[in-house]
Design a protein that fits this description.
Distance between the termini: 69 Å
Radius of gyration: 19 Å
Strand order of the largest sheet: 6-7-3-5-4-9
Order of helices and strands: HEHEEHEEEEEEH
């Protein structure tokens, strides 16, 4: 997998989170001329639930990712908040994809450069921090984790969400279909250390 490491400058009642798992490994491409609302509607029309974030990455709606929806009327209502600046999407089983979040501020890019030859080619987007979001097909029962793989390398899966940075003008580096998680990464993410066994010897007096 090859990536350009240089960041491009920015350019019914459905109150519950919808299960809108994508039925394809090819995710939509957002034109950089679209507004955040236009981008949100584009994603929703592709079957991906969305919700708004403020510019500081705090959810701009009550309930956060649990309010994500594909209902256009509800999306327009959420984006009636004038401070709704970023497009958020839930990850995991609800959307059908997980995200490997590479954070350059904590050493994530160093890990990526050392291991990118071991990673499959997959959908990859630049993030605002200069990092990467690598999209993978959802792995059953995979949940969020922070730095379990390495410092600066997080996972957004069941119970998580990400900002769709391409909607804010950041580069789509690789528009390949989503790949499956690599086995070696899943071994790290699903590893559970064995329980310690303590032996107690009691002596009577």
């Amino acid at each position: 997998m090859q990536h350009n490491p240089t960041k491009k400058a920015a350019g019914g009642n459905q109150t519950a989170l919808q299960n809108t798992q994508t039925n394809t490994t090819k995710l939509p491409t957002i034109l950089q001329t679209k507004t955040a609302l236009d981008a949100a509607i584009c994603l929703a029309n592709s079957g991906i639930s969305v919700f708004p974030f403020l510019e500081n990455k705090i959810p701009a709606c009550s309930g956060g990712f649990k309010s994500a929806t594909t209902d256009i009327a509800r999306i327009k209502a959420m984006w009636s908040n004038p401070n709704a600046a970023l497009v958020g999407v839930p990850t995991g089983v609800i959307s059908g994809f997980d995200v490997l979040d590479i954070d350059p501020r904590n050493g994530g890019m160093e890990w990526f450069e050392q291991n990118k030859h071991r990673l499959p080619q997959t959908r990859t987007q630049r993030t605002r921090s200069g990092g990467l979001h690598l999209f993978f097909k959802h792995q059953k029962d995979l949940r969020n984790s922070a730095s379990k793989i390495s410092a600066g390398v997080d996972v957004r899966a069941d119970g998580g969400c990400v900002i769709w940075w391409q909607a804010s003008g950041y580069d789509l580096l690789d528009n390949s279909p989503m790949a499956d998680w690599s086995d070696w990464l899943l071994e790290i993410l699903t590893y559970k250390p064995p329980l310690a066994i303590f032996k107690c010897n009691f002596t009577g007096e």
